[in-house]
C-alpha cells in the first residue's frame, strides 16, 4: 500500500522542521541574529533617548546620524553574512522560502523609506511628529515581517515576537516624543533580546 501524499500543512511543517534542524547544525539559528539586533536597538535607541534628556551635552544628530546608522548597518551586515552562510547548506523549498523572505524585507524597507522620506519632505509635520512617523512605521514593518516569518516557518515564537513589535509600534506613537525612543529601547530591543535567549536555549537543548 503506497503512502498517501502529505497535505499542504504537513508539507509546511516538514519544511519548517528541516530548516530549523539544518540551521542548528550550521550554527545559523535565529539566536545570533536576534542578539545582534537587540544590541543595535538597545544601544542605538537607548543612546538616542539619553540625548533628548535635559542637561545632556550630546547633540541629537550624533545619535541619529552616526550611532544608530552604524549599529544598524552592522546588524544588517551580520544578518546577511549569517543568512548566506546558512543558506549554503539548505536546498529545495526551504532555500526558496528563505530567499523570498529576505527579498520581502528588502522590498518592504525600500518602499517604506520612500514613503517616509516623501511625507517628511512635505514639511507639514513637526520634528517630534517626524520622529514618531519614522520610528513607528519601521517598528510596524518589523512586526509584520516577523508575523509573516512565523506563519511561513510555523514558528510560534517568531509570530509572537512580530505581534509584540506591532503592539510596541502603536505604543511608541501613543507615548509621544521622546518617550518613543524609550519604547524602542525597552520593548523593541528587549523583545529581540528575549527572543535571542529563547532561541539560544532551544538550540542547546535541540528542540
Q: Give Rg in angstroms.
A: 19 Å
What is the helix/strand order? HHHHHHH
Given helix and strand content, the structural type is mainly alpha
The helix content is over 70%
What is the number of E strands? 0
User: Rough shape?
Assistant: globular
Largest sheet: none
> What is the percentage of strand-forming residues?
under 5%
Distance between the termini: 33 Å
Low-confidence stretches: none
Counted by DSSP, the helix tally is: 7
Mean pLDDT: 85
Report what the structure shows.
The chain is mainly alpha-helical and 207 residues long. Helices cover 83% and strands 0% of the residues. α4 packs antiparallel against α5, α5 runs antiparallel to α6 and α5 runs parallel beside α7 (179-205). The two termini are 33 Å apart. The mean pLDDT is 85.
Which key phrases capture this entry?
207 residues
Task: Please give the structural blueprint.
Elements (H helix, E strand, L loop, with lengths): L7 H19 L3 H22 L8 H28 L5 H29 L5 H26 L3 H20 L3 H27 L2
Offer a quick outline of the entry.
The chain has seven helices and no strands.
